[in-house]
Amino acid sequence: MRILLDIVRQSLSTLWAHKLRSFLTMFGIAWGVGSLLLLVGLGEGFRSGQDKNLAELGQDIMFVFPGRIPAVAGSYQSGQPYYLTYGDYFAIRAESRFLRAVSPVLERDDIRAVSDYGSTSGQVFGVAPEYNQIRNTPIEPGRWFNEEDNTQHRRVAVVGWELLKNMFPGQPAVGSTILLNSLDFKIIGVIPKIGKEGENGTNHRVFVPFNTMRSNFPLKAQNSENGISFINYRPIKRELHVEAKNEVHAIIARRHGFDPKLDDAFQDWDTIDGSIRVAKIFDAMDWFLGVVGVVTLGLGAIGVINIMLVSVTERTREIGLRKALGATHRNILTQFFVEGAFLTALSGGIGLAICSAFVTLLAQLPAPEGFDTPRIVPASAIVAILSLSVAGIAAGLYPARKAALLPPVEALRQE
Question: 387, 310, 400: which is closest to 20 by C-alpha?
Answer without folding.
Answer: 310
